[in-house]
Amino acid sequence: MPKPVNEEMRRLNRGVLAASERGQCDIAQSLHGTLCQTLGGVSLMVKVLAAELHADNPVKAAQLEELGEVIDRALEEARHLFTQLQPVMPGEDGLMTALARLASETSIQTPCDFECENAVLINNPEAALALYRVAAEAVKNAVDHANARRIKISLVDPDGVIALKVSDDGRGFVPQTASGAVHGSELMRLRAQTAGGALTSESELGHGTTVTFTLPKNEAQA
User: Is 38 domain-assigned?
Assistant: First the structure.
C-alpha cells in the first residue's frame, strides 16, 4: 500500500516534474519553430526545382523528387517528436485529442481503442499532462511487455471524479509480486499522487491488466 504524499512532498514533486516538462516543452518549441519550418521550406524548394527541371532533365528531376520524399519523411519524424515532447495542446479538450491520437498511433502496431462517451474537459494543463503521461506509459507497458492483442483507453468523469483507465488483454502479472514487474509503475503512481489523484492496478496472470488513474474534478481546474 503506497504511502500518501503530503502537501510539502507533493509540492516538491510537482516542481521536479514541472521542470522536466518545461525542458521538454522548450525542445518541442525549438523543433516546431526551427527544424520543422526549415524542413518544410526546403521540401517546397526541392519540389519547385523538380517541377522546373522535369521537361529538360527528367532524370535529375526524378532524383530531386526522391530527395524531396526523404525530406518529407524527416519532417514527419520531427513533427512526431514534437507531439511526443508536447503531447497535450492547450485547451479544455486537449487531453481528449491527445488520447485519441495516442490510440491511433498505437493501433499501427497493436489495435487500440479510445472511448470517451461524454466530453471530459480539463483546463488545468498539469493535470491533463499527468493523465496523458500515465496513459502513455500504461499503453507502452501493454505493447512492450504484456504482449497485448488489444488495448482500450477510456476517459469518464462520474460523481465529481475523472477516471482514466487503460486495459489490455495481455499476459498480466501476479499482484503480490508486482513490484518491478510493471515497468514505470512507480513513476505513474508518483505522477498520479502529485496531481492529487490515485493510481490502482488490477491484473490476473494470463488475463490482462487494468490501470486506473482517478482524479478529483477540482484538481483538474487551473
Answer: yes
